[in-house]
Amino acid sequence: MKIFHTKKQLLAFYMPGFLFGILYVNLADKQLGADLGIFSEYFLKQYRMTEIIAAEYLWYLLRSRMIPFLALLGLAFTKFRKISVILFLIWTGFSSGVLMSMAVFSMGIRGIILCIVGIMPQFLFYIPAYLVVLWYSYTHPRGQWNIQKSIFTGLMVLLGLIMEVYVNPLLMKVFLGTL
What we know:
Blueprint: H1 8-28, H2 30-34, H3 41-49, H4 54-75, H5 81-107, H6 109-119, H7 123-139, H8 147-166, H9 168-177
Helix pairs in contact: 1-5, 3-9, 4-7, 4-8, 5-6, 5-7, 6-9, 7-8
C-alpha cells in the first residue's frame, strides 16, 4: 500500500471512519439510538451537581489520556508505525462520528455545542501533541524524532491535562446551566 505524504492525507483516513460512525448510529444500531447515555437529561443534571475533586480527577485523566498516547508513541518507534497511524485515525473518526450523531440525535444543535464545550480547551493542546506523533510515524524515515518534538509533545499533553482538570469542568457546568 502506497501511503501519501501530505498532511491532508491524514484526513483521508479520519473521514471514512467519521462517516462510518455516523452510518453506524443511523442505520446499524437502533438500540444505541434508543439509549441516550451521557446525553440524557438525568446524566447531565447529575454532572452539573457533581463536585469534581481535582486531585482524583487528575489521576483518572493520567490513566485514561496517557495510556493511549504512550501506546501510540511507543508504536511510533516500531515497524507498525504507519498501520498504527491509519488504525488510530480510522478509530478516532469512527468514535467522533458516533459521538456527534448521538449528540444530534438526542439534543440537536445543543448536543454539538455540548461536544465542543466538552473537548475545549484541552483539545487545543492534545491535538498538536498527537499530530506531532502521528506525522512523525506517518513520514518515517523522512521525519526524525528529536528533543524538540519530545519537549513539545510533553508540554502540550501536560497543558492539556491541566486544562481538562481545572478549566473544562467549569466550562461544562456553565454550559449545562444554560440548558
